[in-house]
Amino acid sequence: MQQTEFDGKGSRVRWTEVPGEEPARVYVHGLGSMSSVYHAHIAARPELTGRRSLFVDLPGHGVSDRPAHFGYSLEDHADALAKVLDEAGLTGAELIAHSMGGAVALVLAHRRPELVSRLVLTEATIDPLPPPSAGSREIAAYGEDDFADDGHARVLERVGPLWAATMRLADPRALHRSAVGLVRGSRPTGREILAALPVDRVYVQGGLNGELPGSRALEAAGVRVVTVPGAGHNVMLDNPDAFAAVVAGTL
User: Fold this and answer.
1) In angstroms, rounded to a whole number, what is the distance separating the alpha carbons of residues 117 and 96?
2) Dihedral sign, CA of 202, 112, 35, 59?
3) Boundaries of each AB hydrolase-1 domain copy (predicted)?
């Protein structure tokens, strides 16, 4: 396990790493998740082995620290992720980012373009105010104290065992602030950043969730939008064969 300070006060963001050739692939998880749980089985696929791969847990999540003073906005998470890439000596990395992680990856690519050569965004949140059905909206609807007191436990009961397994490891206040930041979005918005970036960009959507709004405009801006059949929000778990092919660039 690797770690580096991210807040100037001794708090550490941590990641596990598989050695290999560069450009490295950096896997970034979604809200209340962990990168290794959602992506290690993908990086181990024969078509993806041999590349240096990092599985980063964002602040407040997984094995990373969860300082009470930290803001956990998209920009805060992006800056922490940049610290990881700097500590790892990476430039021009490929970011494989899911859900909230996609929003973080977009902010990182906007603020530190030299760090990113390719984006594979899986069901990424690219607009403020995600749909009402999104977990971030439910979490952000609580006040922070209410969520920390008993809202966290209530949400864990409703989200199902898969998401709850990693969400219960996230600090409740960090989870709430991250959700609020995700609902607030970034400036420019994730969609605006995605359309303007000069790097290779792939947006992966689960076929069970319908078409991404505004997908034609994104495609006109050079974004490749890939729909994976039989998959919902967790494409890498629902259809790993297709997802690995997208990451490898063969689909």
Assistant:
1) 11
2) negative
3) 26-148
The H helix count followed by the E strand count for the chain is: 12, 8
Specify the CATH number for the domain of residue 191. Answer: 3.40.50.1820
Write the CB contacts of 25 (distance below 8 Å, at least 6 apart in sequence): 43, 48, 51, 52, 53, 54, 93, 94, 95, 96, 247
The answer to whether residue 78 sits within a structural domain is yes
Is residue 94 a part of any domain in this protein?
A: yes
Q: For a pLDDT cut of 90, what percent of the chain falls above it?
A: 96
Amino acid code (one letter) for 16: T
Asked if residue 241 belongs to a domain, the reply is yes
How many angstroms separate the CA atoms of 30 and 124, rounded?
9
Q: Which two tokens stand for residue 202?
A: 């792939």
What one-character DSSP code corresponds to residue 239? -
Question: Residue 250: is it exposed, middle or buried by C-beta count within 10 angstroms (0-12/13-18/19+)?
Answer: exposed
Question: Which residue range is the domain that position 236 belongs to?
Answer: 2-131+185-248
Domains of the chain: total? 1
Q: Is residue 199 assigned to a domain?
A: yes
Q: What is the pTM of this model?
A: 0.98
- Size (the chain), residues: 251
Longest dimension (CA), the chain: 47
**Partner residues linked to 56 by β-bridges:** 15, 28
Q: Do residues 11 and 39 make contact, with C-beta atoms less than 8 angstroms apart?
A: no
